[in-house]
Amino acid sequence: MCKCRVCETNNNDFHCNIAGDNICRNCCNDFQLRNFKDSWSGLVKLVKDEMEIYNISECCLKCKGLMRNQRVELTGDGSIINYGYNGKYVFNDMVDSYSYKFFNKKKIVLLESMNSLDITGVYDLAEGYYLLEEYEKAIDLLENLEGKDTDSKVLLLLGKVYFHANNLQAAIDCLLNSIKIHGDNSETYRILGEVYQADNNLINSAYYFNQAIKYFKIDAYDRPNDYFPQYSYLGLAVVYSKLNQHNEVIKSAEKFLESQYSWDTLVEMLYEQRSGEKNYIGFGGFFACATIYELMALSYLEKENLMLAEKYIDRAQELNPENTNIATTKGIIIGRKHNDGKISEYREQISSLRQNIELRASSINKLKTLRPEEQVKLFTGNEEESVWGFLVGKIFDNLKTIENLSPIVTPSQNKAAEEDRYTDLFKSHMDSNLVDTFGWITHTQSRGGYTRKEMGDRGGIGERDIVIRSHQNKDLLMGEALILKGKDTASIKTHTKKIFGYDIGNCNFHIIINWGFSEKPDSVWKDYRKLVISRQEGIYAVIENGETENLYPGINKQGIRTFYTKHSTDVENEVATAIHVYVDVLKQMKREGAELARKK
């Protein structure tokens, strides 16, 4: 009898696309719920990498084991969500935003497999498309749905889809018709307020935000009629700012802040995050709070209350120190405190700052739907900021954190940890900075994973160590990491060459992280640089090199050794950029040792 390929019992229920053989129902459940036992881990070579799990799990969407004839119950710890239609069920774990996204993919597969759908099935399928940002598919389904004009829930969903597809008038029509049918749904009013705000109809926007607040309620089963009621207050704060009603801005902002962490708690969490004591993956609210504090500061500045203006701009700067507009506002407040100049002298500058903060505040709940270039400009308040300059800054911040934390994984002053131990630590901290704000994620290669065959100049051997990927599934950066102890010519040449081979999507932006374990880091780094820039011929030859701070002015290197190289590519007129860094984990290990010796 054919056994399960994973647990080797005599039970086998499905042919598994991942195992390439028959497996039992329990092992299939374990994989879909990411309950990886030793047998699964050994088979697919997965260790801790969420995105690699999802990439591999795409195979599940075409497997017979995806759909079941009954709900799947959770055994043991964890979380589970089921969806059923017409006697068929799909399920998934619920640990992060990507698991929810993947669950919607499963739901779509189930519904698309049906010969026909009733109004509930069509709604659920359209909602799945909407949540995966496939707006045209959702619109086609809902527009052709018989009876849509008498169903407030369908009209609300269609209105949201049109809004995200930037068809504002169609969104307004759908939402108003939904209200005619069901006039006390808070979410419908809030979305309508957001649409009118985007259309710059401020009076209507304020009216519908206030209606959303009026009709918000929680039913007997603890289900709210809007899961994001705080955004009504945020929307009002923006509208009142545009209408120059600064007292109302402050009132609305204070109401919004009531739904967030207290300032003291927020500061404590930030300290833990930045010091590396804790890692708040999915740490929500800091960008929204920074934005609302900045909006309050500008309103207090307009009211000539410089003490409170400074209080709230300081809070905004604490939460978002990279934002140039916050720094400018702080400068104006300080200038006003130390001279007798009138607020009118700063009128043009303040007007520009307010327009920027109003744009950012109104885009908070849509930030993850924007292009990376737009996200970075909104987040930093700097129209000149590039995705790559922003990424390099974030990377340096996190590399410094990892340098400080490296003794956790370094065995001793005489022995470095495996390269992937440092790299996984880096990944974890990069995620906490990018996932919640932008929806970007850092993922690392499967430890011991498969090795691709040689595929030419693009698509080389093995797996890249680091990839930072946007919420739109676009590779923004690829990275390679190695332990650097000395002038290991062969290893350096290999690592600095193969990074280009992985870039089959022409990302053309790379980082090479050297986890430094040398007694003479300056000498080793000099030799490394000389070896890298000696590549003057052939594809990916170095055509330019220099200091990273010259490529990205204003970057804080955090004391990390770094330089950049630019390379020719296999595509005419395309240039690839590589940032090289040396993270001195040996120095940090010695520092920790010296500190312990002093204490003794």
UniProtKB/TrEMBL annotation:
Keywords: Membrane, TPR repeat, Transmembrane, Transmembrane helix. InterPro entries: TPR-like_helical_dom_sf (IPR011990), TPR_rpt (IPR019734). The chain crosses the membrane at residues 280-301. SMART domains: TPR (SM00028). PROSITE patterns: TPR. TPR repeats lie at residues 152-185, 290-323. This is Tetratricopeptide repeat protein. It comes from Bacillus cereus ISP2954.
